[in-house]
Amino acid sequence: MVTIITEVSKYLMMILFACYTYDCFSVLQKADDKKRQKRIFRRQQMFLFLIHLDAYLVIFAVKEDIKVLAFFAVQVLLICVIQLIYRFLYKKASRLVTNNLCMLLVISFIILERLNEAKAIRQFSLAVVAAVITLVVPFLIHRIHFLHKLPYLYAALGIGLLAVVAVAGKTDYGAKLAFQFGAVSLQPSEFIKILFVFFVASMFYHSTELKQIVITTAVAAAHVLVLVVSKDLGSALIFFVTYLMMLYVAAKSPLWLGLGAGAGAAASIVGYKLFGHVRERVVAWKDPLSVIDDEGYQVCHSLFAIGTGGWFGLGLFQGMPNKIPVVDEDFIFAAISEEMGIVFAICLILVCASCYLMFLNIAMQIHNQFYKLTALGLGTVYGFQVFLTIGGVIKFIPSTGVTLPLVSYGGSSLLSTFIIFAVIQGLYIIREDEVFDEKRNSRRGKQADQKVAKG
Amino acid sequence: MKKGTAAEENRRIKKLRRDKNKEFAGIAYGFIALFLAMIGYLAWFQTARSEAFINNPYNSRLDHFAERIVRGDITADDGTILASTKVAEDGTETRVYPRGRTYAHVVGYSDNGKTGLEASYNFELLRSHTFLLERVVSEIEGRKNEGDTLVTTLDDALQQTAYEALGSRKGAVVVLEPDTGKIRAMVSKPDFDPNTIVTDWDAILADDEEASVLLNRASQGLYPPGSTFKLVTALEYIREHPKKYKNYSYTCSGSITNDHYTLHCFGNSVHGEVDLEKSLAKSCNSSFANMGLSLNIKNFADTCEDLLFNRDLPIDFAGSGSRFSLTGESGESEVMATAIGQGKTLVSPLHMALIVCAIQNDGVLMRPYLAQRLENADGGRVEQYEPSAYGRLMTEKEAKILRRYMKNVVTDGTASALQSDSYVAAGKTGSAEFGNVKGRSHAWFVGYANAKGKHPIAIAVIVEDAGSGSTVGVPIAKSVFDTYFK
Fold first, then answer.
1. How far apart are the C-alpha atoms of A327 and B470, rounded to whole Å?
2. Which residue, B14, B34, B50, sits at the end of a domain?
3. Between the N and C ends of chain B, which has fewer C-beta atoms within 10 Å?
4. Are A235 and A402 in contact (CB under 8 A)?
5. Do A308 and B58 count as a contact with CB atoms less than 8 A apart?
6. pLDDT grade for B313, boundaries at 50, 70 and 90
7. What is the spatial distance between Cα A22 and Cα A44, in angstroms, rounded to a whole number?
8. How far is CA B440 from CA A436, B227, B347, B431, in A?
9. Residue B235 included in any domain
10. What is the full DSSP assignment across A361-406?
11. Across the interface, do A394 and B68 touch by the CB < 8 Å criterion?
12. End-to-end CA distance of chain A
């Protein structure tokens, strides 16, 4: 009986998620039709709830533990609260961004519950904390007007914290990433990404003269170098690409893009020659089966999972995702693909793409250059991280050991992504103000014209 | 007038904004392209690459499937059961192989590790595509579902014939359809009984050092090709002399000496004046050694690579890559030896059969395959594997010339025993010396036969340490052809 529920649910969840994903993009058409948009957002929330419900039905059928239902209830409560807050406190925020945030969270809860219940509970508590903390972020972004005045504070904080980790952090899988405070482990680089974006945006907001560009580049390079020294190459790559994109947009010249890409390529070759663990990752990427006992082990097991799961997945609890090392963090995408199917996993990629598009959308819409750069920077941080983690899991690129934002287990990653999403929501609110101002100005202009005409 | 300017103004603002966002849009398109590339890769991986991962022995998920599925059958193309799982009343499962040793290597075993088709189709055999309702019912009753059946391309009559013809000698026979790539028979000896593999295991391992019982000689065995390789040397000569290859002439005095190295014709025969066609029909070593010395070695190596030497064969089961190692630095004695199929060249019987397939099929090699289709336990079709071309190994004209020569080997050469009223055969014999023992050789025959109304078939036969190809190899091919065209 359990197997039937699992089988049916697996297809049902796939179809529901496909519908949800379709709506992520269909809502972008006919953007003027507000009623249609509202309808679509409500429909998305329904899909979201049904997927959540269906998954927990399966989990309950397998575990036969009443606690599962209680846990499900509080999760639903959290999602409802997040939705209500944005619905009533931040009316002007993007509802698509809110929906996607909730969707990714729900997928995270489902897959973590299946992988490791204790971690799921921990992740849920962290999500509650993150939701509460970031509640005020859109408000702050909206009201604080001196954010662009503190570039050197961001830089000093960022490099300082990174340097402390490089010296005193604990070592994880060969890289120094985190501090340990009792039971809590904090990974500062997750937050410094945000500071870094603010730093670059404020620098280029003030000037894009050569001197400013040189100074900014030097400071950015310092960030990247400290990360390389800590052997956190995934983060180093994210910082580098983010800086490159922001520089390109601010200086409006493809020359910088070319220069940066050249420097990046040269640095990769040096890194390959210099670091044994980089070479290992590349070998494991080229032919993982040939080194399955050593460096290829993780990627092979990831591909076993994805391949065996196939297009429609094996169903929740029917696979063996726990065979993959670090499955709940860097390789969570493989677990999702194995049990919920490649179709579901592709929809997940598309939902991440939808988030990315909404980040870039606000970057293009908003007028203030500081906010434009901020949105672009945060969008790149998010989009590139998604690319690195999923690309690594499916062997599209060598694995770099970064997490899938909002889905992977881990408090620092979760909280920092919550902050990024909240900042973006703040920008959507600022944008509404701009629209309001524009309308008022053009109305005044017209009135002035009429007065002149009358006179 | 005023409306016009307002519209213009609007356009101007829009254009301004577009210009301002040009870089943003470029980046957005770039990232979306990355995401789509990732999705495309994932889909490609699943359709084209996942099987190698799924069926990897490290993937323990498949053993887990066996808890819910009764492993499916493997059958010959006419439905003859080659492997099946018997479930006792208490639920114990036994894998049985009704044809036993005859199919030992090609079907393989699944009880002590997995080999053969049992290994390469492990995943497919552990899936069930029975009627959905049936699956639901058995699920509720707590019964296991029946796994899918793998219907192979193997022809039971041909397999039995080849198996018996090889007798108790060590060696291999492989039979394919050149125009489809279907493998119709694949036999390797010495063999083992897959039914008792677990109990026999220690004895087999003790033997294995010397006899290599578990090795599928047809695809994994590597042998010196002997005179069968003269087909390749002849092809290279034709390529270097596309217009004048017919003018080739050599006077054979029974041996050739060069660089202090002497090669003899088989049995020290003296063939007199021979052209290319006659050199091949009589398998004249002296003439081919002479021809080899005239060849451009680099081009020779390229031709061999065209014919899949030094590369992996396009197969999805265990096989060994053939080796051809002449280079510009090779000495003349090695060139002479290589031209007649001795030297350091090593081939698998399957590879030789594939070269013959390409010759028979106008130069185009069809991808060899063993799995014809998957059926559910009730006989409904789940998946059909269609023939597909691997690529062209030689031109149509080259294939045609070689076919003529190979026919001549039957009508007027070392394989005359293959003359028959019911089919037309062609081929090449070989007696490949091995090690440093003079006078001992592996017996080879490679060739094909066709007749109206049936697919042609190609064959490669090797019998280890058995003497000459024409006395030992040819009769085995004859019994296979006779069975097939009867």
1. 61
2. B50
3. N
4. yes
5. no
6. very high
7. 10
8. 98, 14, 18, 9
9. yes
10. HHHHH---HHHHHHHHHHHHHHHHHHHHHHHHHTTSS-------TT
11. no
12. 84
Number of domains in chain B: 2
Cβ under 8 Å to B: A residues 299-328 = 300-301, 303-308, 310-311, 314, 319-320, 323
Is residue B245 scored above 80 in pLDDT?
yes
Query: Containing domain of residue B327, as a range?
Result: 226-370+389-485
Q: Residue B318, by phi and psi: left (phi above 0), alpha (psi -120 to 50) or beta? A: beta
Chain B interface, best mutation among A314, A396, A397, by max B CB count within 10 A: A396
| CATH number, domain containing residue B321 | 3.40.710.10
pLDDT band at residue A454 using 50, 70 and 90 as cut-offs? low
A-chain CB neighbours of B2 within 8 Å are none
The answer to whether residue B11 is domain-embedded is no
CB-nearest to B54 from A307, A356, A360 is: A307
User: If you measure CA to CA, which chain A residue comes closest to B10?
Assistant: A442
Q: Which residue of B has its CA nearest to A5?
A: B136
B100 and B195 Cβ atoms separated by less than 8 Å: yes
Confidence grade of residue A349 (pLDDT, cut at 50, 70, 90):
very high
Interface A–B counts its CB contacts (< 8 A) at 118
pLDDT at B1: 45
Least Cα distance to A337 among A116, A106, A10 occurs for A10
Q: Nearest CA of chain B to the CA of A181: how many Å?
A: 37
pLDDT tens, residue by residue, B15-62: 777 777 889 999 999 999 999 999 999 999 999 888 888 888 888 888
Task: Provide the pLDDT for residue A138.
Answer: 92
Backbone angles phi, psi at B194, to 5 degrees: -65, -20
Please give the ipTM for the structure prediction.
0.94
Q: What whole-number distance in Å separates Cα of residue B269 and Cα of residue A53?
A: 86
Question: Per the CB < 8 Å rule, is B34 touching A387?
Answer: yes
Which of B39, B67, B122 would best serve as a mutation to test chain A binding (most A beta carbons within 10 A)?
Answer: B39
Cβ count within 10 A of residue A78 = 17
Residues 374-413 of A with CB under 8 A from B: 376, 380, 383-384, 386-387, 390-391, 394-396
Chain B nearest C-alpha distance from A398 (Å): 13
In a domain, B196, yes or no: no
* Partner-chain contact A394 B41, CB within 8 Å: yes
Report the distance separating Cα B437 and Cα B250, nearest Å: 29
Q: Is B177 within a domain?
A: no
Convert A329-359 to b/e letters by CB count within 10 Å (16 or more is b).
bbbbbbbbbbbbbbbbbbbbbbbbbbbbbbb
B54 vs A contacts (CB less than 8 Å): 304, 307-308
Q: What is the mean pLDDT of residues A324-328?
A: 89
Q: Which candidate from A308, A314, A390 shows the least CB-CB separation from B59?
A: A308
pLDDT bin (cut points 50, 70, 90) of residue A446 is: low
Q: Which residue of A has its CA nearest to B143?
A: A1
**Angle CA(A137)–CA(A141)–CA(A147) in degrees, nearest 5?**
125
Closest CA to A197 of A246, A251, A232: A246
From chain A residues 120-159, the ones with a CB under 8 A of any chain B CB are none
- The closest of B426, B323, B406, B307 to B358, measured between CA atoms, is B307
Q: Kindly report each contact of residues B136-139 with a partner whose C-beta sits within 8 Å and lies 24 or more positions away, as own/partner.
A: B136/A4, B139/A1, B139/A3, B139/A4
Is A452 an interface residue toward B (CB < 8 Å)? no
* φ, ψ of residue B453 in degrees (nearest 5): 85, 0
Distance from CA of A82 to the nearest CA of B (A): 28
Contacts of B295 (CB under 8 A, 6+ apart): B233, B236, B237, B240, B335, B339
Instruction: Name the residue among B41, B58, B139 with its Cβ closest to that of A396.
Output: B41
